[in-house]
Design brief:
133 residues, alpha+beta, HIT family, subunit A, 5-stranded antiparallel sheet, 5 strands, HIT-like_sf
């Protein structure tokens, strides 16, 4: 898949709307629209890489440092017990890091599609917490 047709590249270019938690010139982090849990976030490089093995060492270090920073904010703002991290690429062939809050009560067996209003509420909760700091 070329970057012109990649859904994550389009999100990075603001051609497709998303619930953005963080953005800089090289990365964007947004709520997953089919989350495993409340606050499930994707962190991606804006540059198109099919798998993380292709990313230059400096850039992969920046991606994971950012994922760690965002994970800490998710854990605190959403009162999660843990934040699981996974790098998968089976659905969208663009490197992305999953940050999955764990609240101690459920296994990860199914993804769900929450209403847009629920995603807005979660985004607001995260942003309000970040603004207090």
């Amino acid at each position: 898949m070329e970057s012109q047709t990649c859904i994550f590249c389009k999100i990075g270019k603001k051609e497709i709307p998303s619930k953005v938690i963080y953005e800089d010139s090289a990365h964007i982090a947004f709520l997953d629209i089919r989350p495993y849990t409340k606050g499930h976030t994707l962190v991606i490089p804006k540059k198109h890489y099919i798998q993380f093995l292709e990313i230059p060492k400096k850039e992969v270090s920046e991606l994971f440092a950012l994922a760690q920073e965002i994970g800490k904010k998710l854990k605190t703002s959403l009162k999660a017990e843990l934040i699981f991290l996974s790098v998968m690429g089976e659905e969208v062939p663009h490197t992305h890091v999953h940050l999955i809050p764990y609240y101690g009560e459920m296994p990860f067996t199914m993804r769900h599609e929450p209403p847009d209003e629920d995603l807005d509420k979660i985004l607001k909760e995260i942003k309000e917490y970040k603004e207090k700091k």
